Amino acid sequence: MLFDGFQLTVMALISVVLLALAVFAFVDSALRREDAYRAASKQTKPFWLIVLGLTALVNVLQIPFFLLQIIGLIATIVYIVDVRPALKQVMGNSRPRGGGWGRRRGGSSSDGPYGPFNGR
């Protein structure tokens, strides 16, 4: 009885993670430009929107056809690991313009976040 509850909780957690990954990949693919897909020599934007949208739908409806979930997981992983970095490279750095912690604005390598650091 205790094992059944634990198994149900673990499976629910896995389902939520799979759904979150699919939704993230779908939203990310929707926000990318169409020409970036062609420039990166990847499938078209409508292709990825359909595949990732169906993956999210299968995970939301929790269709008991396990093979569809596995295919969707593979498609999501391919998008996140292969297509997304290629699109980011083609489009340049996709961070918003303006300030940011990781952005260098010039100066020497000893500059800290509040100005020069001379070690004194």
UniProtKB/TrEMBL annotation:
Residues 90-120 are annotated as: Disordered. InterPro entries: DUF2516 (IPR019662). The chain crosses the membrane at residues 6-27, 48-81. Pfam families: DUF2516. The keyword Transmembrane helix applies. Residues 107-120 have a biased composition (Low complexity). This is DUF2516 family protein.
